[in-house]
Amino acid sequence: MDVIALMAFAGALLVAAASPGPGIAAIVARVIGHGTPGVLAFTAGIAIGDVLWLTVAVLGLSVVAQTFAAVFIAIKYAGAAYLVFLAWRLWTAPVAIEEQTAPPAKGRGQVRLFLAGLAVTLGNPKVIVFYLALLPSLVDLRHVTLVGWVALALVTLSVLALVFGAYVAMAARARRMLSSPHSVRLVNRCSAAVMAGAAAVIATR
To answer: pTM here?
Structure first.
């Protein structure tokens, strides 16, 4: 894999991933509403979803993806439904500061969070467009070897870890600054509105 092509891919992915979208909205809203417990599993699901779309593009499986359109539509609506659920949870969340931290998710809770993040990414139109439409203009997919795919996957995971980590840190800091029930309610409901908007974007694209 050409180093220049990898750098171009990393730069484009950094810009695309850092721009607010359904995935970022879900991460920020979850951290603000529930703190950092479980966020690693959730963001891991989102990142693995990116790797799956990368693999579809590298293998030239766009036609296959279209063939199984019904499956992806179901995944899309599952992701949108999860965002709506998060929006409802945030809108109705208690406003007492001491009640805001969710207990650490364990076992099946971690798996559910991972699958939720995966569903959000697999149904995210921004991610689909990036890998299936824009990636071929950045990388010559016809000549990507197994080593090249591994390099692209590692770059993807590294860039997403950087972006998601930055958003999680900012959201956690904003959450710590909440000093009154009124501000908690306001931030929760603004986050819920953003989340609902992200769900609408996924469901209607």
So the answer is: 0.73
